[in-house]
Amino acid sequence: MSDETTGHAEELTHTTDEGDVQMVDVGDKPDSKRRAVAAGEIRLQPSTIEAIREDGVGKGDVLATARIGAIQAVKHTWETIPMCHQIPITNVDTEFDLREDHIELEVAVGTTGKTGCEMEALEGVTTGLNVVWDMVKAVEKDDEGQYPDTGIENVRVLTKEKHRTE
Asked: Residues marked as binding?
């Protein structure tokens, strides 16, 4: 259970008293309208950012493909995070911000149900950024085939909202 005033967990909800893993029973919780926003960034070479801006990456439209990947990841979070519930996704918004040496991605997820959607937002961000990396890896590699200028960083939940439906 969570202490609503401090936000700190009083006990682990995904383990039994014996230490066995369990999925939390949310069956008795009322439905609530929920929204979570997560963000992260990928560091890239400025020349790669420019190629993305100009739609000059050989594999295709990087941001369109990353947007599809992010949305797909949101919808399938329950399949990749073992204790995550399958929830009805009501909306996914993705927003990319191209900077000089990195791209920022924000993913907002909406649902109406018994549990939050922050894990779905995080999955959307990490997968969306992984898709960007996959699309540009050929131009990001150095002469030894390494990625010294490339990195996914600062993945985090920005906001989490819950509004009871009546």
From this structure: 83-85, 119-120
Contact in structure between 36 and 161 (CB atoms under 8 Å): yes
Write the pLDDT tens digit of every residue in 37-56: 999 999 999 999 999 999 99
Residues with a catalytic annotation lie at 134
pTM of the model: 0.84
Residue list for the binding site for substrate: 83-85, 119-120
User: What's domain 32-164's superfamily in CATH?
Assistant: Molybdopterin cofactor biosynthesis C (MoaC) domain (3.30.70.640)
Residue ranges of the domains in the chain? 32-164
